[in-house]
Every structure is written in structure tokens, then in C-alpha cells.
Amino acid sequence: MKTHWKRAGLASSVIVAALGLVLAVWPDRSEAQPAAPRESELNEVLSNELSAVSELEGMDRKVDAFLQKWDIKGASLAIMRNDSLLYAKGYGWADEAEGIHMQPSNLLRMASVSKLITATDIMILRDKGLLSLDDHIFGEGGLLSDMPYAESISDRNYHKITVEHLLRHQGGFTVSGGDPMFSTRTVMSNFGLDEAPDNETLISCMLKRRLRFQPGQSQAYSNFGYLLLSQVVEKCSGQSYEEFTRDNIFKPLGIKDFHIANNYYAQRWPGEVRYYVPSNEPPVPEYNCSGRMVTRCYGGNDIHALSGAGAWVGSVPELMKFVAAIDGREGISDVVSAESVKDMVAYFDEATFSLGWNDTKPSSGWMRSGSFSGTSALVKYFPDGECWIMITNASNWKGAGFSKIISTLFSDLRRSYSSSLPARDFFHGL
What we know:
- By secondary structure, this protein is of the alpha+beta class.
- It folds into 2 domains: 56-112 and 260-428, DD-peptidase/beta-lactamase superfamily (Beta-lactamase, 3-Layer(aba) Sandwich), CATH 3.40.710.10; 120-237, no CATH class.
- The protein contains 13 helices and 11 strands.
- A hairpin with a 4-residue loop joins β10 and β11 (386-392).
- The longest helix is centred in the N-terminal third of the chain and has 16 residues, at 10-25.
- The two termini are 24 Å apart.
């Protein structure tokens, strides 16, 4: 922010002139970094009109028909090719009750796409020499072994869990008895809690349970595992999870508007959409045993507590810029080393999760999905260097399986309209 001073007479002018001379011969060696260029302030400059291209009107109609078919109120779509943002547009409603149409600048919960951000944090810590993927989480010398909740462990198999096991969902955790990140009321009941647990209390409760399989011997998708990784980020960096992510991912990229989600409509971030559930879905008990009945996407679960497992909120174009920074291409400087990019997208087999990504099969590209009540998100990075991202502000009965339906839509649209996408780059100027 610039400060404008009024003249205060000749004496002030002399002082200012003298000060300027001193500064000229004695440069400030701690000078601040220049402000982020205008080109990176995507949410301030992008609009639907910028992607209103006559050759793509057919694509717009297909997306609109898709949303209508699946009873989706609104969606944001962005398309990138070789680290150039070609297209960014909102469809339908950001908030129907308020009469607000979706714009590419609108913020949306991205659910488990957040795991890709957390995995990137872990790889940055490795690049900095602050951890290894082979480091153990608990036990002697474990990254979290001195945390108070580690005292809850009775099953010594916990001492076998490594960072890589958590990244690949191989830590030994299952959702038998319910996913602890989405069954707060059950956790409160089972462990005699009078209020919804904070993350450290939740971890302490869960560590009292026995693991369901030997770490590294099998896999089961685990939000809880990524909550532990969020704790690893904090322990190894000495910062909060959110602060470390901002300093090491978002700020270097000029990403301005990513936040940890809140639980209720009244707590939404500026520009954040309204979320919707199927019209026939009844109210559910509030997550914290208050006795209130709520719409599931607003208080049915403790979304904020998901942290690095699923709590990030942001715009699709800014999410795309993040993806460009972990893809190994030259257009956008990567926030991780070339070795880390290679390790994150390494493919073993269909039974092995990639690091942060769901799947990185060379023949079909990289995929990261996310969903919970009120949100469906898909990042699909195709082998030819084209990346498509869509996030909706509504969920349906298909749940996590809806990402496959969005993926089919992407393939259909690519066949018909990829060649018509304009040659431009919203990342580097309008």
C-alpha cells in the first residue's frame, strides 16, 4: 500500500532529500520482494465473458445439459494445455437464492483434491531435507513420537508406519466402523466426549484402536492418514499446516484466495458459493451432537477439521495454476524438484495409489478426485499435456463415483472441442 505524504515545509523537504541520498548510497539489503504481478491475480480479472468463444458454444450447451441431467446447481470449469490456461468459465448458479451466477473466480470446496496439496507439502519438506519418505511416524525417532497423542498407542504396528505409507493409503487404517473424519458423533459417543474433538483429541482417540492390516502390506483409502500428514507438515516445518502451505506453494505462485473451509453458510469466504444436496435428501443431525437438524453440507460433517485431508477452498483457475506447478513442464516454475515430480506421478499398478494423485497410469494420465456432501471435484491431466478441472457446488446420490461421470464428460468434450480452444494463456496476461 502506498502512503501519500503532504508537504510540511522546507525543513521536511530537506530531510526527505537527505534520506533519499542516504538510501541511494546505502541500499536496503533486505528489500521486500516485488508485489505479485497483475497476471497472477486470476480471481480479480477472469470472467465468463473472456471464455465466451463462438466455436465453443456447443461445448457450453453440453455442459449446461450435463448439469441439468444430474441436478447440479453450478460448476466451474478450467482447461490448461502445456501450462497455459486456455479456458475458465462458470456454469449455472453460484448462489441461486441470491441470484448469483457462477464465475471462474468463485471459490469452491475441493474435498480430497486437498490431498494433492498436502502431498506436495510433504515433497517440499523432503526437498528441503526435513524428512524422508522412509521416516517413521511413531515409535523411536518417529516424526510424531513426541506428540502427546502418541502415548495412546498400544498396537506396536503403528511404529511401522512411514510417511510413504500414509501418502499411499497403506498405513493400516480402514473405515470399518465409519470414517472418523465423517463420523464425529460416533467418535464422541464411543469415547465419552462432551464436545466435538479437535484434531489432536481425535488422533488420540483413533490411536487407541488396533490397525486393520500391517502397514505397507495392503491399502485402504484413509482421510485419517492425511490428517496425520497434516500434523507431520506442522511438526517438521514449525509452522501451522496452512501457513507452511501458503509460504511454500501459494505465495510463490501468486495464488491469493485459497482457504481452509468453514462448516456453515454464514461462515463462507468472500466469493464462496452456496452448496446444495439432492432435493430429496432429508436434514441430518448436526455433527457435534447439538441435537439440531441441519442440511448435510452445512453442519452434517466437520469440514474444517479435515485439514489437509479435504478442507481447502479455492477457485478452479488458481487450482489449475497449482497443478501447473507440480507437472514438470516449463511454462510455470514447479514448487517441487524434478525428482519429486517424478516420484509423485510414478505408476506401479492399479492397486497402488500414487503420491497425492489417485492414479497416474501413463496411458490415461493423472487423476485426482474429491467429493463430499455439496461438492464434486475432478482434476484430469491427460498424457498430451492438456488438463481439465471441474468442481461443482452440489452432490448427488452417485457420491465419489460421480468423478467417473465427469471424466467421461471431459473425454467427450475433448474429442469435439479441444482443437477449437483458443491459443492464449490467462496465466500470463489477458
